[in-house]
Amino acid sequence: MTDKLKLAVIGVGIMGSSHVRDISKSENVALAAICDIDPQRAKNVGEAQNIPYYTDYKEMIDKEKLDGVVISTPHYFHTPIAIYAMQHGVNALSEKPEAVHVKDAHKMNDAFAAAKKKYPNLIFAIMFQQRTNPMFQKLKAMIDGGELGKLVRTTWIITDWFRSQSYYDNGGWRATWRGEGGGVLLNQCPHNLDLYQWLVGLPNKVTGFAAIGKYHNIEVEDEVTGFFQHENGMVGHFVTTTAESPGTNRLEIIGEKGKVVVEGGKILFTRNQESMLDFLQNTPELFAKVPNQTEEVPYDTSSHGSHAVVTETFAAAIRDPKVQLIAHGTEGIRGLSLGNAIMLSSWLGKTVDLPLDEDLYEAKLQELIATSRFQKTTTGSGEIADVSASLH
């Protein structure tokens, strides 16, 4: 039997501890080491798993013969860790988001391209496990297959990311410009932003409205509305918050051939009998509507997207370059640019273009960090919480 691939987890907090559990159960990969800047946490996890543990990721990468690392640290550290790993020929799987801002994402992508010249089979992946959700896979197949025809509107109301003040107080880095780099867009919504662009593409113009600490004692955004204009004429809307309970998770995609609504785990397709764009131009009737019928679209409901599937696919691709990754790391910049554009638009009070002015975004972010007078209150025991109920 082929020896197991050796992976290490860097950052064994809430998400990292979940990756530790997944890898420990795997038949294909072995947990070879872990790293965390908290010495006691690193010791606890390392001893529990009976593996080497470190507080310095560079030391771990230099000493251990690793096939890959899974990066689950606070966001700002994704960039230097992934770059260091790739420069040393170690495959990297990063938690979302790829980076805090687009400029850092470009640095990661450029480092990957440079490292590939020395290590041709090097892999850089990102943990977009929602792409493995059969519901979204079915939706993408419908769109790509032309079942909706020309798209005219996409609206995602995703307001069921409710978080308490205690959540934000549990961790000194969380919900600060210096420690996390943003709020709901950077923490809760990277999967939604990735899925938006994966399904319907990126807009070319973004108008954003972001409320800073509107409902929580935090210095980052906790309520956001984005308006998108696509080059093909489609408009998009993205509405999110961490302060709404009960919240809504409703995705509408309207095309000339009908409307798809994704809500409550169901895909409902109201199918037009003919193109609404043709109908509105050609019908002699004043108040006619396109004849249609609604059907529930079946899909595989046995799974809902899995971190473990992404990790296992990452490992399989290390063994066999022909294996397709769930999401290449270089794709992380796309959803990130959408979130960054919403915030930059809100800061400037005007519509911004994509590709994003990454220097301007970084300058505004650094200004917020430098001028911050926010006093973070940290509470809680520091114990690792079970995050599974919040993943959707």
Structure description:
The chain is of the alpha/beta class. It has two domains: about 5-130 and about 305-325, NAD(P)-binding Rossmann-like Domain (Rossmann fold, 3-Layer(aba) Sandwich); about 130-300 and about 335-370, Dihydrodipicolinate Reductase, domain 2 (2-Layer Sandwich), CATH 3.30.360. About 35% of the residues lie in helices and about 20% in strands. It is built from 13 helices and 15 strands. The chain has helices at about 15-25, 40-50, 55-65, 80-85, 100-120, 135-145, 165-170, 185, 190-200, 275-280, 305-320, 330-350, 360-370, and strands at about 5-10, 30-35, 55, 70, 90-95, 125, 150-160, 205-210, 220-230, 235-240, 250-255, 260-265, 265-270, 290-295, 350-355. The strands form two sheets. The chain has a nine-stranded mixed sheet with strand order 14-13-12-11-7-10-9-8-15. A six-stranded parallel sheet has the order 3-2-1-4-5-6, with helices on both faces. A hairpin with a 5-residue loop joins β9 (about 220-230) and β10 (about 235-240). α6 (about 135-145) packs parallel to α9 and α9 crosses α12 (about 330-350). The longest helix is centred in the N-terminal third of the chain and has 17 residues, at about 100-120. The mean pLDDT is about 95.
